């Protein structure tokens, strides 16, 4: 019998109506700022490709500045990044037919073999605003018809400290640095996850998923006192952030009277372990950026982004930020990152999260999961996120046209997996 | 010109109407008993996953008994088997958020981090009856809304001997043992085939496919006199089994006056080879189990199951059964199985069948094969099977929701083929 | 903003209407002659499979003659080529149930195990005309309902010389040999490309794509003076070929007053390199065969075919033809082919074309590219091709039934990539 039918769900029809836009955002939220590369991934002159919310992007660094254009030549639709060609410092040229675009405006400034073509100057490809800050490159990814004013990067980032100390008190740890601060160092990794980006977001701040980290080596090594779970006990547990011209999101008020740690489950005979108090706080902001304060250690904060690539892949960003006043502090942070944070936290600990998100994908891939899931009280913050994301996103990305990932199981994708090279001779037709 | 159009087919519109339900059963027949694992594949305490008719199953052995539940946590839909977690002997816990289910009833008995959640006791996941007999584990796979009485395993198994000796005489070989008999040993293998389960069924008892075995090593080694084919010469050739509260299927009455061996094809100048008479008989039963009596050798019977996993994959089961009165006989059977039956029969001989079934898949994958196929007299038993299966199946499995295999060419499936691990760092977005 | 919307395109709605049939031909043009194998790929007695325009083909050479039949047994739809079985010189037998077809007519002449079946002689599979000439095997691939007269191979081949010298003067190079000439040797390769066949066609004669060859080793080694591009300066630049009962296509009148080489792009500061004049001419004919005269060297001509396999794969044929009056000349040509033409021209040079075509596939795979592409003056010849192909093709291939490549991401295809063998034992169901 189907017991599911009989039970009360937090994601009932009423709730689903309140986050309907979110449920439609398979391809992500468009017209937002997203991280695209670390600064050291784009050397001077380099041309690299990426895809965000189904929008193919080509990035080039010229005279120090990074430019982002649509990675789809308007002529025959090939990726400029497939075979980089740059003939001047101010342009990028399509390797196929020589269509040459201004890095600044995206307009077609010349065609290598047709300098006098009348099409020149009358058309072009979309360009996207880029901000480079403290070793990270952000791009404002827009739909082709976007023509509003471009909001500052800070609107798509977490709230900052000490600015918000009074509003969101945190007596238990030092002020968290921000990617946008002066004198900070940002160190991290990014990799592709095989799930929808929303499933990744919801894992990040999920108060109920501590269980998957119970046995992590870093937890045992540091003897952290991690509760079995954290239970919201007032409607203040999750506090909204709806700053005009500022971040939109919410904060889980852990380690306040609004949350109660769950230390034991008698029926199942499980008890929280660890003796060293471990204080932290998670908050989540549109378009999908997580801040974990006081993590993995004091004076460090962990940011995470879950950036839609296609409707079933996302780029997972893990970035640690720390104030470093001088080279010595920077080197110490880099040393600790390479030898401790990266292997034990960003991998050892967060690999469990990556696994968990990908494990949800089959349930949601055909769309049925959004109705069949059965959320409860512990998912309070997830419902909160879905609603606020529905209210404040700047657009639902459309299913893209002519982009990899739209046609599932396409032969060119399988050929790449098979390792077929254009040079290979095969006389079997299939 | 399309000569197909002009010809008379056994699968004409009239016939197709009589087995319409079968033609709709892409995902298999639900509400039946199927083999899921061999006993030695689930050790005490072990948790393993499987999928049958699109239903994900998680199996756990606790205190000797095997339990089967739906392998899809009602909360976020992950597989419990993806990362086994068991906190008590009577429950299985979802590794992600700690939802804990009773092995007996499937009801939600606790949540690790929310012992007092009011949802507890009000919901649960489906459980499935399990029978373990003579080294095989069977599960009764149901739709979520099934609430009839559960039929005995014997109803979904072949008829038994000597009970049916008078009804279906077989003077040419000893009584075939049954998986359900006392003092039998069942030895076999199972593996995934890449075709629809129905194509596999139809290969098993197909009187016309002897040709693919003509050159098999075991046939030559034993010098078996295998005819080119066996031709039905009366409408008694195929005898129906429609026992009330018993098996439903049919028997090919080989080596009776109802069948005539074809020993020669003059036009093609082919002749049957072999000098040693080889007697056997095939019969097929709902939901898709084949019995080959007196095979591969005297006193042994071969059972085969073709169990739908998805609409284009099935689990192929090959099981040999023999009466063994003591350890010595058991050891002799195990020795002969490992060194002769498994390599030369279950592989050497039946690998040709696996190949043949998979070779049909492209023709049927888009659904067109069910109309375009051109069956003739030799397919008499196949039409018989389709009709009886249509009449006696207990339900057509629906296309599942939120299950692997529904979305073809999904990125997470391709990633697994590519060997991508959650731990891998990739900075290319596509 | 979407600058694309504002601009004039050569592929405007009006133009698109004129080549609508072409835009529908995902699976190719049916009822045409296509190369299927080189003669040395089918030895006496050999049976090989191929697929053209979604039509599965099985080829057998018997008593020197090559026969082509539909590679789909009418009984259960398996490929005869999956496991070749030939019992007489005049027939091919299906390995599964012994259905035996006449090589000449395709009619069912016997069934191994049912020599008296009344279906015999009443049905059969399609056969396809075959022509073998100068080391190449061509097949006339038809729809099942084709019953017109079969046109000569020459109608689907390029125009010939010297026959057309006056009509299409070429003072700059010797007369190009033809595959159909006496005393010619044809040497080449063929391989699978992962794009739609039309994208491959359009790359072949594309006057605007010289850029991708600018840096090719053969160009530098021979110091060829290759312009940046070639610009049509009169409406005579592209001359139509619409011979009654003859080839249909067009010629790019390079190196005449109708084309102007572009040697420099001042804005981008690029200049054509090379000092050795290099004369050649491209022409394209229905159903998709390119002729490059005087290429790669004098007295040699390069033919290319782009043969649809599925809607997203095609077979790429590169064939060099040369008159050889005696064995010595033949050996010299073979020597030069193996050691120079194949590695540096057919690979080094044309690999760039293969790459370019496959790079377009994502843009066109979902059908959107045919509207979103933005063609200009340089694409004059591409529009010409689309129109003439729309006018003179003998049929648009339908999406095939029951053929590999129709269902994308099918499990049996993924299994083959994964390297799963029928013999493998796997007890995980997924």
From TrEMBL, chains A, B, C:
Subcellular locations according to the entry: Membrane
Main location, first listed in the record: membrane
A Pfam family hit: Rieske
InterPro entries (UniProt xref): Cholesterol_7-desaturase, Homotrim_ring_OHase_catalytic, Rieske_2Fe-2S, Rieske_2Fe-2S_sf
Nuclease found in the keyword field: no
Keyword RNA-binding set for record: no
Keyword line: 2Fe-2S, Iron, Iron-sulfur, Membrane, Metal-binding, Oxidoreductase, Transmembrane, Transmembrane helix
Name of this chain's protein: Rieske domain-containing protein
Matching PANTHER family: CHOLESTEROL 7-DESATURASE NVD, IRON-SULFUR DOMAIN CONTAINING PROTEIN
Domain Rieske: 33-139
């Amino acid at each position: 019998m189907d017991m599911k039918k009989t039970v009360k769900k937090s994601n009932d029809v009423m709730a689903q109506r309140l986050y309907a836009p979110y449920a439609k955002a398979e391809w992500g939220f468009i017209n937002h700022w997203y991280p695209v590369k670390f600064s050291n991934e784009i050397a001077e002159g380099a041309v690299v490709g990426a895809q965000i919310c189904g929008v193919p992007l080509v990035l080039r660094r010229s005279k120090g500045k990074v430019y982002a254009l649509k990675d789809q030549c308007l002529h025959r639709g090939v990726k400029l990044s497939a075979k980089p060609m740059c003939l001047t410092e101010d342009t990028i040229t399509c390797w196929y037919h020589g269509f040459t675009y201004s890095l600044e405006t995206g307009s077609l400034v010349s065609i290598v073999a047709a300098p006098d073509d009348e099409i020149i100057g009358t058309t072009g490809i979309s360009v996207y605003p880029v901000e480079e800050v403290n070793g990270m490159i952000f791009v404002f990814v827009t739909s082709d018809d976007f023509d509003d004013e471009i909001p500052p990067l800070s609107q798509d980032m977490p709230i900052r400290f000490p600015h918000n100390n009074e509003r969101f008190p945190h007596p238990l740890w030092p002020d968290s640095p921000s990617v946008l601060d002066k004198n900070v160092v940002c160190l991290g990794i990014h990799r592709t996850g095989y799930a929808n980006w929303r499933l990744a977001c919801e894992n990040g701040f999920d108060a109920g998923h501590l269980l998957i980290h119970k046995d992590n080596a870093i937890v045992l090594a540091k003897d952290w006192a991690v509760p079995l779970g954290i239970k919201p006990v007032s409607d203040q547990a999750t506090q909204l952030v709806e700053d005009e011209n500022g971040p939109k999101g919410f904060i889980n008020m852990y380690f306040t009277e609004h949350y109660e740690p769950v230390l034991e489950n008698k029926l199942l005979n499980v008890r929280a372990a660890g003796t060293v108090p471990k204080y932290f706080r998670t908050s989540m902001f549109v378009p999908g950026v997580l801040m974990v304060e006081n993590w993995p250690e004091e004076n460090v904060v962990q940011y995470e982004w879950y950036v839609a690539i296609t409707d079933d892949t996302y780029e997972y960003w893990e970035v640690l930020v720390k104030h470093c006043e001088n080279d010595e502090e920077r080197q110490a942070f880099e040393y600790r990152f390479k030898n401790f944070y990266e292997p034990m936290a960003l991998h050892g600990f967060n690999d469990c999260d990556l696994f968990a998100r990908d494990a949800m994908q089959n349930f949601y891939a055909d769309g049925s999961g959004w109705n069949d899931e059965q959320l409860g009280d512990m998912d309070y913050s997830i419902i909160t996120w879905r609603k606020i994301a529905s209210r404040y996103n700047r657009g639902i990305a459309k299913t893209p046209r002519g982009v990899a990932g739209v046609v599932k199981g396409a032969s060119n994708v399988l050929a790449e997996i098979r390792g077929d090279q254009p040079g290979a001779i095969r006389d079997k037709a299939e």
